Amino acid sequence: MAGPLSDRERWDRRYAEGSHTGEAEPDWFDALGDLLPRGGSALDVASGAGRVACGLARRGLDVLAVDVSPVGLDLARERAERAGLRIETRVLDLAAEPLPAGPWELISCFAYLQRELFPALCRALAPRGVLVCEIPTVRNLERHARPGRRFLLDEGELLRLIDPLEVCWQQEGWVGDRALARVVARRV
């Protein structure tokens, strides 16, 4: 009998089966106007199939997309090529390996919660660099069985995790049928 799948194997399988591949680029980036840079270097953490990475590249950022899944990153490169965008990708297990060296003008972290990673994310930002996050909260369990509790933020937790960054914009609550915490915060 085989043992449990590693994170890499589990995500490779999901991406190969077509799960988590069809999501659109974040539709709220444009509404943020000048809070997000339109140039410089960006790191997309847990990039998966590249929806956020492509949204950032479309804004003019030089994007490095990192993820534990090589299959997901293959999909990210294909998505970027289809859209006429350029992104770099790197297989990286954030639970075992450090973040790529910064500083970064923007770091994005969407649908990925590794609480102990947040101090490193904040330190890796360039002066005046921006952290952009969107992570489901525990209220999501009211309507969805997944993701499980350990992958969900408590109410108000994201603001505590990003301290000492300056919060430029934040939203927490139901967005469509998902309970999300969203934030744009700047290193001062």
Q: Any overview of this molecule?
A:
It is built from five helices and seven strands. By secondary structure, it is an alpha/beta fold. A seven-stranded mixed β-sheet has the order 3-2-1-4-5-7-6. Strand 4, helix 4 and strand 5 (125-136) form a beta-alpha-beta unit. The longest helix is centred in the middle third of the chain and has 13 residues, at 70-82. The model has no long low-confidence stretch (mean pLDDT 93).
Provide a short characterization of the protein structure.
With 188 residues, the chain is α/β, with parallel strands linked by helices. The protein has five helices and seven strands.
Strand content: 25-35%
Which word captures the global form? globular
Low-confidence stretches: none
Sheet/helix structural class:
alpha/beta
Number of helices: 5
Strand count, sense and barrel status of the largest sheet are: 7 strands, mixed
Helix content: 10-25%
Oligomeric grouping of the chains: single chain
Over the alpha carbons, how many angstroms does the gyration radius reach?
A: 16 Å
Helix/strand order: HEHEHEEHEHEE
Distance between the termini: 52 Å
Tell me the strand order in the biggest sheet: 3-2-1-4-5-7-6
The total strand number stands at: 7
Report the average pLDDT across residues. 93
